[in-house]
Every structure is written in C-alpha cells, then in structure tokens.
Here is the input.
Amino acid sequence: MRVSKQDVDVKLEIPGAIVRQHLDFGDANGLGKISAEYFTLAAGVDTTPLFQGLDGNACQCPHWGYVLKGVITTTDAAGTQETVTASDLFHWPAGHNVRVTEDAEIIMFSPQQQHTHVIDHMREKVRG
Here is the structure.
C-alpha cells in the first residue's frame, strides 16, 4: 500500500506541530490494526503538557518509525533519554514523552486504537 503525505488526514494542527494519521494501514498480530502517521514538528515542541492525564503522564502507545529530518529526544518513565536524528529508524516503547530539538519530520507506524486514544487526548488538551 502506498499513501502520499498529502493524502494522510490531519488530526491535529497547533503552532509548531502537524499530526497526520492514516487509519487501517495494516494489522500486526496481537496489536490489532496499525495506523501510518506523518508528523511535522517544530523545534521546541515538548509533549509533556499534552500527555498530562494519560497513564504515567506519558504516551502509552509503542511506535516504529523513520526520521526524515531533525532531532527528537524521547524520555521514558525512568528518565532514560534517547535521541534520534535524520535517517534513523526507531522504536519508541509505550511510556514516553517527546522533545523536538531541531525541526523534524517523521513517519511512524502505531497500533491504531492505542494511538488514536492518545491523539484524541492531545486534541482535548488543546481545546482546553
């Protein structure tokens, strides 16, 4: 299956971030349906306030992806940090927050039901 970035639905757009999600992109045994996502993130974006209220105040959805450009650092519940940069493949286990150091674009694949819950939570946070 091929999907152009322009055909991936924008689910959230706030200053410094555009979150796109394509539902029903595939199926992974035990994880259910997978969504394909294209995120455009500006330097300075920090998910910590958007994840407040989720279990552990962190994203509880695992992600697999590829960094097209930029620098992103994740922090897990134990405080362990990992930085990904352009051309890196990555896996972010459940229980993370994200901070963008340089403008970034990433492609991710996530369990659809879990990540839709997180995105809906972020949308509610933005709405107030």
Notes: The beta strands are 9-14, 17-28, 32-41, 63-76, 81-85, 89-92, 96-111. The chain has a mean pLDDT of 92.
